[in-house]
Specification:
- The protein is 40% helix and 23% strand.
- It is α/β, with parallel strands linked by helices.
- The protein has a five-stranded mixed beta sheet with strand order 3-2-1-4-5, with helices on both faces.
- The longest helix has 17 residues.
- The radius of gyration is 14 Å and the shape is globular.
- The mean pLDDT is 88.
């Protein structure tokens, strides 16, 4: 029996919640994995690294301004990237433009009949992480 391939994950960083997403084993499709506190997200990524084939790469949403520049938000995310780098030795980390992913995630949830409420903000964060990862997966296509 073949070992499961190492997973790819994505992070949509937020000061209150961190959305996580995972790619399927063929690295074709991204799916939401959940929303966690910052510390819980680190623990979950460690768990994923240590089980089920491991974790090859974490794609972190990079919050560029509308004009494509870095700013205060990217500085906050860089601090979290540094935290992940320390917590996940041997796992590659990369950043990916996350502009508009939260708004797009909200639209997808509305189209599926859901509402953007305080209770489902975690769904939005996880869906935004899935959009970041899907764009990364589709980058060569």
């Amino acid at each position: 029996m073949l070992d499961a391939p190492a997973r790819l994950a994505a992070v949509d960083y937020g000061t209150k919640r961190v959305g996580l997403a995972l790619a399927d084993p063929t690295r074709t499709f991204a799916q939401p994995h959940g929303a966690f506190s910052q510390a819980e997200a680190v623990a979950e990524l460690k768990r994923l690294r240590d089980h089920a084939g491991g974790l090859d790469l974490v794609v972190v949403g990079w919050p560029l301004t509308e004009a494509g520049a870095e700013g205060a938000a990217t500085e906050r995310v860089q601090q979290y990237v540094n935290r992940l780098r320390n917590a996940l030795p041997g796992v590659e980390l990369t950043t990916w433009d996350e502009r508009y992913t939260s708004e797009e995630a909200k639209a997808h949830i509305r189209e599926a009949g859901g509402r953007h409420t305080r209770e489902n903000r975690g769904r939005v964060d996880a869906a935004a992480a899935a959009l970041i990862l899907q764009r990364y997966l589709d980058r060569d296509g």
